[in-house]
């Protein structure tokens, strides 16, 4: 009967990595607030009666003002889809700021490559405490993962019940568990930017179609030069929606790509950290 080797988890205490307390209130509050703010901008700023030669003083949810005096108030003619697109643009701004602050904190202090080289140097000199001190200085996701791995690394040096292979597996498991807690925090809320990238264009297309329907309906009802004003309003509604939707989607796509690139660099640093720890231990503590 084949001999069964004991696993690292059988003789090693549970992981020292703990889940982070991280509320996600912004994920459901921000979209609602942004849509309300988008309507307020459209209704009370772009739709201010003072900006129109023929205002609809009855007010209401969607006053039908005519003859805007300038370009800003002319956007109001884009129709009811405009506040939704403005709200989506505000969402891009809010989540871009939130992701920037989070990822900037995750990058930590200084260059990730320099940090890993310093840790490698200290480990090569068997100075684990100095390597841990470098993690405290780095204060980023790579530093957090490396610190969790170094703590288990330090424990395995004096562990006498496991062989080298089992100790390396224990270190690797600690790194993997720390990584599993760090990566979701980096990727959270990026789904809003990726969704707006595609949905923004579709909503703009809906506004465009509604504007064109209005244009052709005006031509069909009145015909000739009498429908020129209604035709112009319908076309402007279509074009304003198109411009706002494309612009919002373009900005969302740019920010999404910027943040994913930053996350990829952090992920690469984390992977390199795990490789550094396991290779160092396997070579120095055989």
Structural class determined from secondary elements: mainly alpha
Evaluate the radius of gyration.
29 Å
Q: Return the string of H and E elements.
A: HHEEHHHHHHHH
Stretches where pLDDT falls below 50 for ≥5 residues? 1-12
Kindly give the count of domains: 1
What is the helix fraction of residues, given as a range?
Answer: over 70%
- Quote the average pLDDT: 85
Please count the beta strands (DSSP E, at least 2 residues each). Answer: 2
Q: Please give the largest β-sheet.
A: 2 strands, antiparallel
Q: Strands of the biggest beta sheet: in what spatial order?
A: 1-2
- The number of helices is 10
Q: Quote the distance from N terminus to C terminus.
A: 28 Å
Strand content: under 5%
Shape: rod-shaped
Q: What can you see in these coordinates?
A:
- The chain has one domain.
- The chain is 74% helix and 2% strand.
- It is built from ten helices and two strands.
- Helix 4 packs parallel to helix 10 (228-284).
- The two termini are 28 Å apart.
- It has helices spanning 8-11, 26-46, 71-74, 81-107, 112-124, 128-138, 141-158, 164-187, 190-221, 228-284, and strands at 52-54, 66-68.
- With 286 residues, it is mostly helical.
Q: Short summary of the structure?
A:
This protein is an all-alpha fold and 286 residues long.
SSE order and pairing:
Elements (H helix, E strand, L loop, with lengths): L7 H4 L14 H21 L5 E3 L11 E3 L2 H4 L6 H27 L4 H13 L3 H11 L2 H18 L5 H24 L2 H32 L6 H57 L2
Helix pairs in contact: 2-4, 4-9, 4-10, 5-6, 5-10, 6-7, 7-8, 7-10, 8-10, 9-10
Which structural traits does this protein have?
286 residues, two-stranded antiparallel sheet, disordered N terminus, 74% helix
